[in-house]
Amino acid sequence: MADSFRRYGAVVVVILVLVIVAGGVLLLYRQPWDRPALEIVMAQPSCRVTFCVYGEVENPGIYRLEECGLCIEDAIDVAGGFTSHADDGSVSLDADLQNGDVIHVPSRGGVPQRVNINTAGAWLLEALPGVGPTLAERVVDHRDENGPFGTTDELMMVEGIGEATYQGLKDLVTVD
Questions:
Q1: For residue 2, what is the enclosing H or E element?
Q2: Is 125 within the bounds of a domain?
Q3: pTM of structure
Q4: What is the C-alpha separation between 61 and 71, in angstroms, rounded?
Q5: Contact in structure between 44 and 64 (CB atoms under 8 Å)
Q6: Which residues in 129-141 are b (16+ Cβ under 10 Å) and which e?
Q7: 131 located within any domain
Q8: Does residue 98 belong to any structural domain of this protein?
């Protein structure tokens, strides 16, 4: 076997070199040299910001803007500005506005603002402790079907609001 390797070894090496060279030539030949270079473009990140403003602003609600670099003051401006009862000193106007922010503008004098259960949308009712999306929709549905609430304790007529839940809400809601 060693004798035949010496005899054919050079031939095998020459054949292997020819195969490698032929493969390289084939790769170079098939390379698409006439195509333009691939251009990589970095996309700008999305500047969509969705936020909620409620409390002592003229138009509380959920807003969506297509701008970058906004601050809390911009969010207040979009919501119509402060009402005359707003404690505007308690809000950090220069803080950056982030996607998903919930901004509450309290009223002056330490009196907590109450949510009017006769006019509040489900999104605002969800901000109340113990009220999730389902319960908020039940309150709105009950109001739509039966008319406005006469007193806050009528909330207990809504399925899912019992005495314990009402006790946690009674100082935070109003019908006026």
A1: helix 2-30
A2: yes
A3: 0.45
A4: 17
A5: no
A6: eebeeebbebbbe
A7: yes
A8: no
